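Hello forum,

I keep getting stuck at the same step: I have a sequence, I want structure tokens, and every attempt I make locally crashes halfway through. Rather than fight my setup again tonight, could one of you with a working pipeline run this one for me? It's a single chain of 159 residues.
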Amino acid sequence: MPVVSRVVSIVLRITEIAFAAVVAGIIGWFLNRFGDLDMWPNARWIYTEVIAGISIFFGLVWLIPFSAGFLLWPLDLLISFAWFAAFGVLVDGRDRLDCGSIWRWDNITDDTICGRWRASQAFSFLSAIVWIVSALVGMWFTFRVRRHSTDRDVDRSRV
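Reply #2:
Ran it on my machine without issues. Output:
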């Protein structure tokens, strides 16, 4: 079973990196295009860009398969919460745009401001979900290993 958890972990890490790269690219475009204007929420974009950079970095480092990577699930959970906060600040900054509901993620491939904004919201939310799933896999692996090692210790004490 450890092979399955490692494969799932690698797939999740690749997905985390990809989603963070998409958000970093879109938010970088917004910063480049509208960074000089006071009417746009630059602090929100910078926060989201920093979270995307941190996610890419840790996703790449934790992509290297080693068993201690599963013990880092509290950091996965922390990064997930940071992504939920990034999603929240992007939603809050949406007030300046007339792009519809925050959950309306259609036309995210349009080369429009609303399409890019929706894509950044969608991928920041999806990134938060993937990071929390990664934390759950780490928790599952950690407690499964701890339970099995405790069971072995009990069996050895009976001998």
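The chain has four helices and no strands. If your local run keeps crashing, start a new thread with the error log.
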